[in-house]
Amino acid sequence: MTTAQQTSIEKEPVRVKIDNLSKSFGEQVILKDIDLDIAPGEIFVLMGPSGSGKSVLLKHIAGLEMPTSGTVTLNSAETSDPDTFAKTKIALVFQAGALFNSMTVFDNLALYPREHRLYSPQKIREKVMSTLRILSLENAANKHPSELSGGMKKRVAIARALVMEPDLILYDEPTSELDPTMSATISEIIACLKKEVNVTSIVVSHDRDLSLTIADRVGIIMNGEIQAIGTPTEIKNNKDPLITEFLNPKIDLDNPRYKTLE
Ligand SMILES: Nc1ncnc2c1ncn2[C@@H]1O[C@H](COP(=O)(O)OP(=O)(O)O)[C@@H](O)[C@H]1O
Ligand SMILES: [Mg+2]
What we know:
Helix content is 37%, strand content 23%. It is of the alpha/beta class. A hairpin with a 2-residue loop joins strand 4 and strand 5 (77-78). The N and C termini lie far apart (63 Å).
């Protein structure tokens, strides 16, 4: 290997492969025969109606749920093998954000590297501050989460995930409860991180604009089954009535009729 190659490859993003995965909770079948192959470095967006099984599928990838049948592999290691998670660093950005309110933003970010003694205190400080800068949060370092807007809290949650230097980031509804402008900002951040950090990203969302803008590929899940999968263009051109109705709900908020209500 040449020196140039050695310095350019810092880490390998993860390939996520799901084969024949089914999941039931008691009698209730939640996921049915899911097959997915997500490429290293890809932004894969999983869309679908509420209750269709998106979060449950994401939890399988994180190893927080185990399949009733079938497998999830990260690179070629199965999630049923606990060693898999020692080899793959996964960051979760969940709906609620779950920041510690008693700590400053800086301390929320520093918690993981401090607890795992990853770096010297000086190096942790540099990493936390440079990550906050990527997300335009450097002025929030000494604030507490309760002092931040909803959009800032989401960015802090993303920053905290990034400080872990993950190989795989899983986002569950990163733009829920945000106004359209802040949703667009979060979308830009997810797309930008793909360039700045060599990482595979899986985003669960029912935000059509986010999904069709940032995704390399989109998967649509309905009633626990993958109904369609493809590039945003392929998905937009999909003629399946279930898909077109999901992507273009009957109440069209852009319709001039609705503008008069404002
Ligand atoms: N731990 C659990 N035990 C039983 N049922 C669950 C559990 N987690 C999720 N479910 C059910 O699985 C279905 C899919 O949930 P979820 O994946 O959260 O949907 P969404 O697509 O909205 O994220 C729902 O009917 C939910 O009630
Ligand atoms: Mg969910």
